[in-house]
Design a protein that fits this description.
By secondary structure, the chain is of the alpha+beta class. It has two domains: 87 residues, Orthogonal Bundle (Arc Repressor Mutant, subunit A), CATH 1.10.10.570; 72 residues, Winged helix-like DNA-binding domain superfamily/Winged helix DNA-binding domain (Arc Repressor Mutant, subunit A). The protein has five helices and eight strands. A hairpin with a 2-residue loop joins strand 7 and strand 8. It is elongated, with a radius of gyration of 19 Å. One of its GO terms (cellular component) is ESCRT II complex. This is ESCRT-II complex, vps25 subunit. It comes from Wallemia mellicola (strain ATCC MYA-4683 / CBS 633.66) (Wallemia sebi (CBS 633.66)).
């Protein structure tokens, strides 16, 4: 079965506004699906997601920039990793969803009211029990900030760096 990624025009920016809008939506869906399958959180312009060896096609630079901009501005499913704007954090789960996963994990492992470092949450003994394993610190920090605003967490400074206590 042929998919949209095997369709050569998918890799060329479409001149028609309606067609371009549909193309950006399809690219967004493709990026989110692939990143979720790979557990890939960061996407750069040089990533292999932009290429299809099978049909010998690669996206044009402008198209990938437009796609990242579209993801960033229109849907909130990505943010730039830094001021160079050369890569983005891809939110294949929204930050609110990550916050819920985080709180459920801490509650489910009986760690409420326990000071935890960011490392313990993403790389520690219990992290393999949840989707938090390997979650980049900037995404973790954003999810924690949501919980802080909901009065479900308090950030703390520890001797090992940043930490949080869930209440």
């Amino acid at each position: 079965m042929t998919t949209i990624i095997d369709f050569p025009p998918f890799y060329t920016q479409q001149p028609n506004v309606e067609t371009l809008s549909q193309q950006l939506q399809l690219w967004s869906q493709h990026i989110l699906k692939v990143c979720k399958q790979r557990r890939q959180f960061q996407l750069s312009m040089s990533d292999d997601i932009w290429t299809n060896e099978k049909i010998q096609r690669t996206r044009v630079i402008l198209l990938s920039t437009v796609i990242c901009y579209y993801l960033l501005i229109s849907t909130g499913l990505a943010t730039y990793t830094d001021t160079t704007k050369e890569s983005v954090w891809v939110y294949w789960r929204t930050l609110a969803e990550w916050a819920a996963v985080l709180y459920d994990h801490v509650d489910g492992t009986a760690q409420l009211n326990t000071p935890l470092t960011y490392y313990e949450l993403t790389e520690g003994d219990y992290s393999h029990l949840s989707e938090l394993n390997g979650l980049p610190t900037p995404i973790l920090r954003s999810a924690i900030n949501i919980l802080v605003k909901q009065n479900k967490a308090v950030t703390i400074k520890t001797s090992n760096g940043e930490g949080v206590k869930f209440i």
